[in-house]
Amino acid sequence: MDPRVHDHAEVLVDWSARVEAGDDVVVRVDEGAHDLAVAVAEKLGERGANMLATYVADEVESAFVRAHDGDFEQDPDFEVEMLERADVVLSLRGKRNVAEKGAVPGDKRAAYKRSRTAIKARRMDADWVSTQHPTRAHAQQAGMGIAEYRDFVYDAVLRDWESLADEMASLKDLLDAGSEVRLVTDGTDLTMSIEGRTAVNSAASVAYDSHNLPSGEVFTAPTDPEGEVTFDVPMTHDGSRIRDVHLTFEDGEVADWSAEVGESALDDIFATDEGARRLGELGIGMNRGVDRFTDSILFDEKMGDTVHLAVGRAYSSCLPEDEQGNQSAVHVDMITDVSEDSRLEIDGEVVQRNGRFRWEDGFEG
Amino acid sequence: MDPRVHDHAEVLVDWSARVEAGDDVVVRVDEGAHDLAVAVAEKLGERGANMLATYVADEVESAFVRAHDGDFEQDPDFEVEMLERADVVLSLRGKRNVAEKGAVPGDKRAAYKRSRTAIKARRMDADWVSTQHPTRAHAQQAGMGIAEYRDFVYDAVLRDWESLADEMASLKDLLDAGSEVRLVTDGTDLTMSIEGRTAVNSAASVAYDSHNLPSGEVFTAPTDPEGEVTFDVPMTHDGSRIRDVHLTFEDGEVADWSAEVGESALDDIFATDEGARRLGELGIGMNRGVDRFTDSILFDEKMGDTVHLAVGRAYSSCLPEDEQGNQSAVHVDMITDVSEDSRLEIDGEVVQRNGRFRWEDGFEG
Predict the structure, then answer these.
(1) A118 touches chain B (CB under 8 A)
(2) Looking at the partner chain, which of A43, A63, A85 has a beta carbon nearest the beta carbon of B42?
(3) Is the pLDDT score of B216 beyond 90?
(4) Neighbours of A349 (CB within 10 A)
(5) Quick one: B3-157 is in which CATH superfamily?
(6) Most CB atoms closer than 10 Å: which of A62, A143, A215, B186?
(7) Cross-chain Cβ contact B50/A24 below 8 Å
(8) What are the tens digits of pLDDT across the range B112-142?
């Protein structure tokens, strides 16, 4: 086994999830993530944690959902109760075919998701972390050979997370103090409120309210978007390719949408529930260890010189205690390249132009 | 996919587990059983059941157990509570290396098992069924090519279970009416009490208190064994090869044991707990669709012309309501070939000689 698989498991268990002896840890194993599951099991054993592995293969889920009549039972309690008692949930992604979920009709997939909102909520009440094992399917999606792709993944994952967290703190401070964000770039002029929100310094650890490995973004939960936005970074959602999405917001909701490719996948997303048309997240990528787009949201949204928005569910860590934030069965991230002809303003002041932050060399105010 | 995988899934879900709409079904997926898991998921979707797949890869479990200090938490509640609520548990075996578990020190493996007795009990309170997907590792263990092995497995699984159940009822009736069983063959002369026991007509369905697919045996829960027994059918237990086991029983317990190969694996079994030295099962194989030994207990113990005994846990379905029966963290089956020089007596009357039952042609009383 590539020794970096063990390093990956160690960062995941110790830095990201902060697993301690006696923790009940659910490990969600994707069908291509077997090797990482073995390495994670070893670390959990060393730490004296308890482990329960679940199998989250897309082929299995798709077969189930496709064959079902669509009237899914709401949040079956055997799964809710298991997650209710879990201290930590580790999702080890690693697909063998990233297009698999696309074989399920969108309305049925959406119904299945809606039937699992409490399950998802319990999962996110735990110290959860999502990461990805470098499989051939993901390498193919990225347009890379497997050896090159492994280097890409481990360069993004095996970082000095503490230093990056220090760097990201500057942006978090600006967002926490601000009230309004405006993003302007080609095909985009969008204004959002961030009043009263707390930004997350997403340093790939639950200790920072950060739940992805790799991470390296600062995100918050905006409201009341007005204007338009274009997402020019290629993406695959639930097995469907989506390209060049354009959204228009009116009265805080998506009023109009289009895509060059995959518009019907957007239709399905926005038909899921009411919250799917509202914003759940504004994120600013700051991980310069991710040096190219690979059509995988876990990596793409963390890349430096990018900004992303998600429609759907907001993360509670960004919200005031008395506010529930946007609720939805979906949380779909979409990314804009801001390396050229762009600016990000907080309360009218430019904090990033053409990908450079105001505290960086080369910033033009 | 081989169309017989779908047939296998259908027999499992409908005949064996009797899954109904709304049932909470835990599907335990071994690392080589992916294809069967997909086919089972499809059937569960069709039936309107709820599904939660767990991943029971030996490599994952072995890595965890090996790395742990051995002081395992007793029955972590996230797993107990999940199984407590499950209506059905389907175990889809399908190893990629049958020797994997042998890499874990026996005392640690036994400690891990002991820490999971309530988990095992909850699993067996549900309508549980174990079956096996034909992997290359199992074919290799059987000394067969994969195509030939698939034929072997599906011939054993895809049977007319109702007819076999009728045939097996004759033996069940004799055992239910009897008080004492004596088994005599080369190296074996063992007497056991079956007073007050109910034999199970194991027709591969929970409707018959039968939990294996394939099945085709009649079994009960004997007590007070006296004498000696030799198990000449090759077996692999937790990754260790065991050959030609000889046990001597005194005062109802294993007093002495030896094996030509794998004696230390026996040492580990008998050191697990007190119940491991008492009998849990007497089973008589009646599935003539299983036509050879393949070093897999699921198939071997069902073969016609064989008798097996298990040390360890007794199945509650064989016991009077007010009796708990033998308790243990293990249940280890061992098999004797009775096709030659053998006889099985119930209360002094020969019911099987040299593999032929008294109601069959060729029986010599």
Answers:
(1) no
(2) A63
(3) yes
(4) 11
(5) Thermophilic metalloprotease (M29) (3.40.1830.10)
(6) A215
(7) no
(8) 999 999 999 999 999 999 999 999 999 999 9
